Amino acid sequence: MKLIVFNVEQGQCVYVRTPNDCGILIDCGRSRNGDTASPTEWLAKNEGDELAAMIVTHPHDHHLEDIDTVMRLLPPAVLIRDADYDWEAVLSQTTGADDNIRAYHEWESNFVNPAIPDFGAEVRTFSLSRQKAEQLGGDLQHQMNNRSIVTVISYKSTEGYAWKVVIAGDNETDGWQALLEKPEFKSAIKETDFFVTSRHGKESGFCAELFKAMGKPMANITSTRVGDQRVDPRYKKSAQGVKFPDGSRTHFETRDDGNITIQMNDDGRYDVWLFQP
């Protein structure tokens, strides 16, 4: 199984290739600079011309900045999203700079999903209901953050080795605490190997109880935003570390490390590549 977290400067773009070569895209942010400004274009050239599925964590513009390219080059067979939004309220807050949200909404509102395919791995998604997010309070943006879909992808190889990846959106601390009230969510995230953090590594997305449920992942990975303050240092302390020739790393940031690729092999070994475009 392979995980790629792209350096997109804003938002998030994560790709997982499952053991039977199903490509799953989680959000579609993009960078305005560099050779891989559009992860979708890069994926179409390097990872095949099909997407088994796309998962949209939540409809914030910077998580959807490459949506036109997705629709043009890599339209997914399956679209997984939360359809229970008050779109009138969401669109009323958009500006001319948020055209990606409008394009996405027009597309997703007409999308008809076929049967979910065999991904060759267990793919589970969890999120709060609109009612629960509203009960937590805050403005519409806060509620949308807390309704972000969390993706859990698990795989057990024929050699008996297991891998688990958890990919967040913009979930905030109170949203995590509400999700942890669900026994099935706590069970699903147990013994996570790699965690793609929420809220671009900001303090507002860190949740100590979440790590108690996951255990210490091998590494935490953050899609950092240009201009944001440093990542919450607790992420560095909340992982076991992956080994490099010059030591181990517990945390990776796209702002410093570029595109981050982790290959999880059937024999329990892993490889990590860092690429600065």
Topology:
Elements: E1 2-5, E2 14-17, E3 23-26, H1 39-46, E4 51-55, H2 67-73, E5 76-80, H3 87-92, H4 99-108, E6 122-126, H5 130-136, H6 140-146, E7 150-156, E8 162-167, H7 173-179, H8 183-189, E9 194-196, H9 208-214, E10 219-222, H10 234-237, E11 242-244, E12 247-249, E13 251-253, H11 254-257, E14 259-264, E15 270-275
Parallel strand pairs: 3-4, 4-5, 8-9, 9-10, 10-13
Antiparallel strand pairs: 1-2, 1-14, 2-3, 6-7, 7-8, 11-12, 14-15
From the structure above, extract its key features:
about 280 residues, alpha/beta, Metallo-beta-lactamase, Chain A, seven-stranded mixed beta sheet, six-stranded mixed beta sheet, 11 helices, globular
Sheet with the most strands, sense and barrel status: 7 strands, mixed
Count of separate DSSP helical elements: 11
Question: How many structural domains in the coordinates?
Answer: 1
The CATH architecture can be named as: 4-Layer Sandwich
